[in-house]
Amino acid sequence: MIAEQTDLKAFQNTIEKELEIDAPVEAVFESILAEMNAIPDGSGKAMNLKLEAWPGGRWFRDLGEGVGHLWGHVQVIKPPALIEITGPLMMSMPVMNHVSYRILPADGGGSRLVFKHRAFGDIDPRMASGMNDGWGQMLSRVKQRAAK
User: Fold this and answer.
1) Measuring CA to CA, how many Å separate 100 from each of 12, 73, 78, 108?
2) For 28-69, how does the pLDDT look when each residue is reduced to its tens digit (9 = 90+)?
3) What is the 3 state secondary structure string of 35-79?
4) Rounded CA gap, 50 and 36, in Å?
5) Are the CB atoms for 40 and 51 separated by under 8 Å?
6) Residue 89 in contact with residue 100, Cβ under 8 Å?
7) Are strands 11-21 and 111-121 parallel, antiparallel or unpaired?
């Protein structure tokens, strides 16, 4: 007999952030790619993420010897202005995520980074609140990296 569970509710979450960065669009784009490979885990250690920066390329955690976790695929890449990722990201549950980084020239110089993460699926609401903090930390590191 197959047990049915009908009380699951889909959860939606959207995170939107904009940052002014005192760096050219190209430097911001390169900083995003570098940070996508360098995101630390909860203890501050590198997670060994790898980004294949082409359409259809994987973004995954490489734990060695064929072990790892697929975070997503590159849906769109238009250097130096846009990269979009779709996939489960850090969640091992039935979900779909879409993350976009759009970099625009800012009035008066520098760049404006428009970040959006949309998630849908069986997501614990506590995880959703943690994602907001995590993305904020990641974008702060992008800003620091690009300004160097």
Assistant:
1) 16, 12, 11, 24
2) 999 999 999 999 988 889 899 999 999 999 999 999 999 999
3) HHHHCECCCCCECCEEECCCCCCEEEEEEECCEEEEEEEEEEEEC
4) 8
5) no
6) no
7) antiparallel
Amino acid at 33: L
Residue bearing tokens 């669009």: 25
Task: Compute the distance between CA of residue 19 and CA of residue 111 in angstroms, rounded to an integer.
Answer: 8
CA 107 to chain centre: 26
In SS3 terms, 3-31 reads as CCCCCCCCEEEEEEEEEEECCCHHHHHHH
The pair of structure tokens assigned to 138 is: 């990641």
Instruction: Please indicate whether residue 109 or residue 142 has the higher confidence score (pLDDT).
Output: 142
Percent of the chain with pLDDT over 90: 74
